[in-house]
Design brief:
By secondary structure, the chain is an all-alpha fold. 65% of the residues lie in helices and 0% in strands. It has five helices and no strands. InterPro entries: Cro/C1-type_HTH, Lambda_DNA-bd_dom_sf, TransReg_Diox_bact_type. It comes from Candidatus Gottesmanbacteria bacterium RIFCSPHIGHO2_02_FULL_39_11. GO terms for molecular function: DNA binding; DNA-binding transcription factor activity.
């Protein structure tokens, strides 16, 4: 059995039109989550520390970072302010 990297596996999966369609549909959410995680880690903050900065609980940050939350714009604004980042929302 040959081992493959995640990127190799993803490349294979994206050859399937149905998979690619769903992947593309979810990409904006994945991009947001990736950006939040990278920004938090870059600032050397734990989930608990970020949660405390915005007056929330660590579990809320965990759900957001795992893609199991549907955050409001207000909540995203709190996160962006705590991470000292601008919040840009764009349609089209």
């Amino acid at each position: 059995m040959k081992l493959c990297t995640f990127d190799d596996h993803k490349k294979e999966l994206l050859k399937d039109p149905e998979f690619k369609k769903e992947y593309d549909r979810l990409e904006p959410e994945f991009a947001l989550v990736r950006s939040l995680i990278r920004s938090r880690i870059k600032r050397k903050l734990t989930q608990a520390q970020l949660a405390k900065k915005i007056g929330s609980k660590q579990a809320v940050i965990s759900r957001l970072e795992s893609g199991n939350a549907n955050p409001t714009i207000g909540f995203l604004k709190k996160i962006s302010e705590a991470l000292n980042l601008p919040l840009h929302i764009q349609i089209g």
